[in-house]
Amino acid sequence: MKMRRHRVFLLCTVGLCVISFLHYYKALHYVSLLRELTAPYPNIKSFIMVTGFFWKERATPLSSASPEEGPLPVLRPSETRPRVQEGTGGMRAGVELNMAGEPRAPQPWVRPEEPQHKDPDPEKEDMKMIMWQPSSAVQQGMDLVRSNAPSVVVKKQEPQRASTPDPIMRLGDLHKRHFILQEDNKPYFIRTKAGALCFRQGTEIVPVREDSGAGKGKPTVAGVLHRNILQIAEDSGARTKLVEDSSSTRLKPKRGKRLVKCVCRSGWHGPYCGVPTMVYHSNLPTKERLTPREKPRRVINAININHEFDLLHARFHELVDAVDLFLICESNFTAYGERRPLSFLHLLLNGTYDYMRHKILYVFLDHFPEGGRQDGWIADDYLRTFLTRNGMGRVRGARSDDVFLINDADEIPAREGILFLKLFDGWTEPFAIHMRKSLYGFFWKQLGSLEVVSGCTVGMLKEVYENDGIRLRRREYYTMPNFRKYENDTGHILVQWSVGSPFHFAGWHCSWCFTPEGIYFKLVSAQNGDFPRWGDYEDKRDLNYIRELIRTGGWFDGSVQEYPPTDPKEHMYAPKYMLDNYENFRYLLENPYVKQPALSGG
């Protein structure tokens, strides 16, 4: 009996030690243990990462087909020559992709610069990227890599180091410039002759019909779509009898009974018709206390960019009216620690993003964090920490009540939700966003939604999170030491809420949404911590295997999820810009490897 009691006591002690160790390990990385353990299979690393603790140097508990030599070419950042022969001999996909001449990961996106070794004329090179078309830049550009493969292999001698037009040579002080936030003076609200203050985009506007009184109650446009462009609403306002309220006389309306009401369009709610459906159906606890602001907030959106260029264009067009500044961070290292070309900088300098350049502040991360090779989460966290601290440190004129929003490049918030945050007082912080989840393209819609803590005010970012974006995304605000002081100083009680709901999406999360070549690049660039690291497996890097994953919606572990049926015509299927340019983004809107009867084009 005594032996049995000792055995039970020993087992309990060991179990307690294991749980304490796991909790302590996760606490070091600002990740909630319970949330990690209940996450879906792509994030199941809680137990596997424990094994990495005992093998710190190699981090290869899950090796590729060749147990020792396989992962090494990917693990080590040897830049060119030693990897040329290993890559050509050991990769089936490498023959088609032609990643042999240099480190494997950067090759697909450095291809537009390859002709620079043959043609020294820089003007011709710049013109090659100015004619940008969203899908062709990814699909046709990748095909170009394969079709011209022999020429890249022949040109082995230092393809990047000897390149004079390397974007970093033209960087100058671009990554050190400051950005002065300007006031947003656009007339978002209008006042009727009866005195009602209404949000212009969300209000039904009655046109002047002097010849016939029958049309008095008709809206300006019959069957107005839910997601109208802001400019269209502004133009239609000029043809109405509404009198715009000047900024000097527009005061916050008093609470109490309203004698006049705004007539809301479909998809807009509240006494001012300024609350979109995604907020109306959210868990915001202060909906009855929402009031329009006299002066709009400025919104700062921070992201780290790798090669998600199609999604970046969609983000810019979706948020052009809602965001005042985009902080975009690019590194010349992959999350795995290998050198890579500055592809976004190249596009920025050659004019591809001129339509949005006045709102872009470029952040350049020129080093890789110590310890990032052994533990990939160190590198992953550091990217967001550097982005926030460097970027916000160069912003001038920000107020404490301006909005800071941080996303991954594959997370695109919807315009309406961000406009609400910009124009209304009364919501609490921090806030998360419910996003529509999809895999490989918007055609594989995953069940539920992705809820990501994404933003707060600039004041809370500074005082509570110490200007660290990763703490905003991964730390509960009440675990931060200064949250109580911030509440006392501002008089605001912090309550986390989410824009949208699992049934009313407030954005899109398109995971692994690339061509097969783009997925290959992501595989070999992935950080050394999100186990299993599929880029270490040669068969997972095969382009034909990747195409089959896209066709079936399967995952790298061989599993296939259940997907609900989708239709490009459904609400919140994809960002509006992509749907408006359907042909350019067809590879993300329709499954390119399913026979044509599956989905009809736009």
From TrEMBL:
<protein>
    <submittedName>
        <fullName>Beta-1,4-mannosyl-glycoprotein 4-beta-N-acetylglucosaminyltransferase isoform X2</fullName>
    </submittedName>
</protein>
<feature type="region of interest" description="Disordered">
    <location>
        <begin position="102"/>
        <end position="124"/>
    </location>
</feature>
<feature type="compositionally biased region" description="Basic and acidic residues">
    <location>
        <begin position="111"/>
        <end position="124"/>
    </location>
</feature>
<dbReference type="GO" id="GO:0006044">
    <property type="term" value="P:N-acetylglucosamine metabolic process"/>
</dbReference>
<dbReference type="GO" id="GO:0003830">
    <property type="term" value="F:beta-1,4-mannosylglycoprotein 4-beta-N-acetylglucosaminyltransferase activity"/>
</dbReference>
<dbReference type="GO" id="GO:0016020">
    <property type="term" value="C:membrane"/>
</dbReference>
<dbReference type="Pfam" id="PF04724">
    <property type="entry name" value="Glyco_transf_17"/>
</dbReference>
<dbReference type="InterPro" id="IPR006813">
    <property type="entry name" value="Glyco_trans_17"/>
</dbReference>
<feature type="region of interest" description="Disordered">
    <location>
        <begin position="62"/>
        <end position="88"/>
    </location>
</feature>
